[in-house]
What does this fold into?
Amino acid sequence: MIDRVLAAIDGSETSTRSLETLIAVSADLKSPPDIVLLNVTVPMPVMTGMGVVLSDDVLQDYYTEAQEQALKDARAKLDAAGLKYIERKEVGDPADLIARVAQETGAKFIFIGSRGHGAIGSLLLGSTSQKVMHLTQIPVVITR
It folds into this structure.
């Protein structure tokens, strides 16, 4: 029984398509799963010696605004579909946190886009979705 799934959302087109896939799959299930709607924001780099200091409040406001923007459309789609969800907002390494939150919440599947807002960096370092597949035993549904 698929009772809980994790949807990793960064506001990109591929994460939106991943959520739409999850919504379509949920419609075909006897009982729709509870959804963990997760956004992971990459931390701002710390540049020492640059003479610019951002307070914790300014950084927190930045993270909150970025997370709200990324999750806004996802919330609307899930609400329109009548699906239950809880939100998790994290700051850190996306692949590590997606795998960890999926494990912590008992997700049976992870839905993720193939390339998100970090697409340019992933050309050099590998995509977040690929890293998630290597970090967890939970099945990962990757959408293009």
